[in-house]
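Progress against Task 2.4 (sequence-to-structure conversion) is shown through the following example record, which the project officer requested during the mid-term review.
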Amino acid sequence: MTEFRDLTSLRVGGPAKKFVEVATETEIIAAIEAAGDSPILIMGDGTNMLVSDQGFEGVVIRISNHALAAEVDACSGATLTIGAGENWDEFVATTIERGFAGLETLSGIPGSVGAAPIQNIGAYGHEVSEFITRVRTYDREKKVVKTFTNQECEFEYRNSHFKSHPGKYVVLDVQFNLRQGEFTTPITYQELADKLGITVGDKAGIVETRKAVLELRASKGMLLNPKDQDSWSAGSFFTNPIISKEIADTLPADAPRWPTQDGRVKTSAAWLIEKSGIHKGDTHGGARVSTKHVLALTNSGNATATEIAELAKTAKQAVQQKFGITLEAEVNLIGITL
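Structure tokens generated for the chain above:
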């Protein structure tokens, strides 16, 4: 029987009672319909999931379609339509090799193309929603293919219409618009600018920027490495909280603050966790806070899903008690609550 420990980057989780892998749009829809009334779990590369030790009782459908269509115009740039099962970072690498700019700061993010719009993945000052023109999905309730424009996706920080309606839509493919060029837009993220040896607001080469981003992610244990158990994680376990200005004003002066357009303030989950007494390398059974970054909860080699969840609860409770702020999991929790 297929085990989630063999399907996910955290390498934990019980059995997938019925497992199906699908490689075309027709197969995706057929597998969904064949499941009938059984619970369905859609997955890609399994890099943003924590599945319980009891596994999943329904049908697990892993999407691996790699369809690609491209239209390139010297003025408007490239319009690329990518299958949901394509590996995200391999797609990013290909765009840069072909001279398309835009996705370089999103290099190294684990997962599949289909998961990118659901989470509205982002890093180093950019989100994928900036480059998506449409998302084609299968509406499980109406049993029809539905296409969403960028605006209809209702993108927000680490959120989207698809994430807000769990289980209703299955992403089939995603269309991106990228410009042709060798340089980035102005770099807005201080850490990345420092790594590139430039000033915030300057531009950099897209090849050099990808290299810098990959090195930064590796230094934080955020690049998956089968030989490094300190990278056996699901990336950032919690999202950065967006809080009211009043709550932000109660935080210590050195707390990170990034004002949002609606008057609220985004702060750093990592900073809150560290200031709450959680340390890199802390353990609970086989679960461990990464020695490189407190936002990554890792499998030190023999962890259970329960142990990772307990470590996450410890961090969440510590922040709640210290600052009165409730952290929200960025990782998809299957059969587990915090």
